[in-house]
């Protein structure tokens, strides 16, 4: 059975939107190695409709000789209720049904990776489908943009691994905490 892993570039204030506007100044060799290591175990991609639309308009005509063929040939599953006939090679539509996502995980060996798709990741966490949440936390507060978690949403997570890069970026991996701590005041 495969593992479902979500990857995000994220700011200190939780923003994941438009990392192209704040991320690249922090990208270094350590971060490249971490991203490459995570991608090495990826055997398929899972994405929401919005990310599919963005990537399917870019990758098929990309001149990136290294990553382009990988992205175009890799199996891709798109969680969508409106997309019916995906045109991007090796793409399959999966309805937003937890059982269907479990079937995809069971049929896949290796990691099903996600990059972005905050709305889809929140839904996966709510339905106990996400195995790992990998965050590259950048030492910058962006101040605006979509955040990974919505206001009022509580998601208990358990830290699996952590590493600090020379540029101050934190490489953190979390899983959903099956036994979250009580929120009661000790001694009450």
Description of the structure:
- With 188 residues, the chain is an alpha/beta fold.
- The chain has a single domain, classed as Dihydrofolate Reductase, subunit A (3-Layer(aba) Sandwich), CATH 3.40.430.10.
- Helices cover 26% and strands 27% of the residues.
- It is built from five helices and eight strands.
- Strands 4-3-2-5-1-6-8-7 form an eight-stranded mixed sheet.
- The longest helix is centred in the first third of the chain and has 12 residues.
- The mean pLDDT is 91.
Order of helices and strands: EHEHHEEHEHEEE
Question: In percent terms, what proportion of residues is strand?
Answer: 25-35%
Please write the CATH class name.
Answer: Alpha Beta
Largest sheet: 8 strands, mixed
- Write down the domain tally: 1
Instruction: Look at the structure and give the mean pLDDT.
Output: 91
